[in-house]
TrEMBL record:
It is found in: Mitochondrion matrix. This is Phenylalanine--tRNA ligase, mitochondrial. Its main location: mitochondrion. It comes from Strongylocentrotus purpuratus (Purple sea urchin). Residues 91-359 form the Aminoacyl-transfer RNA synthetases class-II family profile domain.
């Protein structure tokens, strides 16, 4: 499996991937997002060799970077987060209303605005450079992202919009949208999921409004001081600490609103390229500490480069699927893409604090293994995961690598994957699975140049 750069839960971007990978592996994996189990999309389409890629009417030239697949492109525009009564939309609205209520201007109107229709097609510059992800950072890997070509990609996080919105003059906003990352397939991982990003900027007056001695306080150091674990070099200690307090207060009250007043929260120090200091929020839920979001004090150089260098601010990002799965007890991330009434009706017009998802019966799985010799170069497990999804469609519940070894003499690498097939609508017939499995093998041999064993 590729070294994971994104946290297992919110799938947040970490600066220290290796460390984080270790801790991730030691914990039970949980969520992110989905597909839909209830349509019969046994798509047998695999990567076409069309020199162009079309996404929502825009055409892009394919190049060596291209990793988007037709299957993934077909998800663009679905916007589950905007579908009324969808659990992702319910959570979005709850959090949005919390921010609307918490920050009012003098006329009593909300200060925050929400952007939930921004296209997921962004430039690589927006996704990575605008938030200071180092050029050689492994989160940029082709194997982990859906690149459209060298210049464009499907956003891997909603932070891709921070810079452009601050640059447009906004100082209090939420961004909600679908994000895309190549990944393994299981009940808690899906290559499309949804995030909410929040940004709040403060002028001197706004930050120190509640302080008696505001005129003696400053946002910025006059000389340059060193960056410490507590603050950036340009910020004063009072600005950094007050921002931290404001950030943690609003996020804690959001967690209480979602999970109830008695929810236990803890802050874990974290590292993100676009915030310092940074934290993750964990909540104690049903006997486990679960990570639910990443946040921090925005890098001043980001604000400077976006034309807001006289303000300071905080930002946060959270995964909506994760929150929805915890809140509503939803066991399988693919359910979010369901159009089955048995799923959606459970959330319609309900008091959301009471709703718990009642699973409908699961049909039995059919499990098949596949082993092959990998080509000498240019092969990543994520290529295989995408291919399995393209060919097997919604019948694929999980693909897991179960064995890997290198032949002692030839040094060839062999991988063995276990594929779990399951329909949410009916019992699968073994023969039908064997056919799909054979098709996956043939397609992998042809397109990934693997050699079946
Ligand atoms: N964009 C991050 C991710 O997906 C999450 C995140 C962390 C967003 C910290 C933020 C933040 O705005 O301050 O990994």
């Amino acid at each position: 499996m590729a070294l994971r750069t994104w946290s297992y839960a919110t799938r947040t971007l970490h600066l220290k991937p290796a460390l984080h990978e270790l801790s991730r592996r030691c914990r039970v994996r949980s969520l992110s997002s989905t597909s839909h189990l209830f349509t019969n999309s046994n798509s047998t389409q695999t990567t076409p060799q069309n020199p162009q890629v079309t996404i929502q009417g825009r055409t892009f030239a394919r190049d060596d970077f291209t990793t988007v697949t037709p299957k993934i492109i077909s998800r663009v525009g679905t916007n589950l987060h905007n579908q009324p009564n969808h659990p992702l939309c319910i959570i979005k609205e709850k959090i949005r209303d919390h921010f609307y209520r918490s920050f009012l201007n003098r006329r009593g109107n909300p200060l925050f605005s929400i952007y939930d229709h921004l296209s997921p097609v962004v430039t690589v510059q927006q996704n990575f450079d605008s938030v200071f992800v180092p050029k050689d950072h492994i989160s940029r890997k082709k194997g982990d992202n859906y690149y459209i070509n060298e210049e464009f990609m499907l956003r891997a996080h909603t932070s891709a919009h921070q810079h452009e919105l601050v640059n447009a003059g906004l100082d209090a906003f939420l961004v909600v949208g679908d994000v895309y990352r190549r990944d393994e397939i299981d009940t808690s991982h899906y290559p499309v999921f949804h995030q909410m990003e929040g940004v709040k900027l403060f002028t001197h007056h706004e930050l120190f409004a509640k302080c008696n001695n505001a005129t003696n306080l400053s946002l910025f150091e006059t000389g340059s001081t060193a960056r410490t674990p507590d603050k950036q070099e340009t910020h004063t200690m009072e600005a950094a600490k007050l921002l931290e307090f404001e950030l943690k207060s609003i996020i804690t009250s959001m967690a209480e609103l979602l999970f109830g007043k008695d929810i236990q929260c803890r802050w874990i120090e974290a590292e993100f390229p676009f915030t310092h200091p940074s934290w993750e929020l964990e909540i104690f839920f049903q006997g486990e500490w679960l990570e639910v979001l990443g946040c921090g004090i925005m890098e001043q150089k980001l604000l400077q480069s976006a034309g807001a260098g006289t303000s300071v601010g905080y930002a946060f990002g959270l995964g909506l699927e994760r929150l929805a799965m915890i809140l509503f007890d939803i066991p399988d991330i693919r359910l979010f893409w369901s159009t089955d009434n048995r799923f959606l009706a459970q959330f319609r017009d309900q008091d959301t604090n009471q709703v718990k998802f009642k699973p409908f019966s699961k049909y039995p799985p059919v499990i098949q293994d596949m082993s092959f010799w990998c080509p000498e170069s240019d092969y990543e497990s994520n290529d295989f995961y995408d291919l399995v999804r393209n060919v097997g469609g919604e019948l694929v519940e999980q693909v897991a690598m179960i064995d890997e070894f290198t032949h002692p003499k030839t040094h060839r690498k062999s991988h063995c994957y276990r594929i779990t097939y399951r329909s949410m609508e009916r019992t699968l017939v073994r023969e039908e699975v064997i056919q799909i499995h054979a098709l996956i093998r043939e397609t992998a041999e042809r397109e990934l140049r693997v050699e079946a064993r």
